[in-house]
Amino acid sequence: MNLYEHTIIARQDTSPSELKQLIEKYSKIIEKNDGEVVKTENWGLLNLSYLIKKNRKGSYIHFKIKGNGKVIDELEKNVSIDKKLLRYLTVRVKKFDLETVYFGKKEETEKKESVKN
Fold it and tell me: What is the rounded CA–CA span in Å between residue 89 and residue 112?
């Protein structure tokens, strides 16, 4: 089993309920192709570095996936034809970092750090 990190950027006008549907849709595709979603992170609405299809912001969703190449092929095929998405990126990694919260709210991150110390 290979390990992958897959990030998608949805259009800025996508509602929270539509984002949940996107997460469920792609999780089902992964599981249907003998893959496993280890973790899903909703990074929220972030500014884009440049305009993409007339959008200045995008909603980022990040998946950590265990699976083979067939899972990724099927996932990317479905992502590339989805009109709600602006971009996607899949990266193969050697191991997952399940501890660090990169795009969490500052207060939550500080609370977690104070609990560790």
Answer: 29
pLDDT in tens, 52-91: 888 899 999 999 999 888 899 999 899 999 888 999 999 9
Q: Model's pTM, two decimal places?
A: 0.82
In which domain, by residue range, is 83 found? Answer: 2-116
Q: According to the model, what pLDDT value does residue 106 have?
A: 56
Question: How many CB atoms are located within 10 Å of the residue 65 CB?
Answer: 26
Strand residue runs (E) in 15-54: 36-52
Instruction: Report how far residue 52's alpha carbon sits from residue 77's, in angstroms, rounded to the nearest whole number.
Output: 20
DSSP tally for the chain: helices H, then strands E: 3, 4
Complete edge-to-edge strand list for the sheet that includes strand 85-93: 36-52, 55-67, 2-11, 85-93
CA dist 31 and 71 (Å) reads 8
- 43: domain CATH number? 3.30.70.60
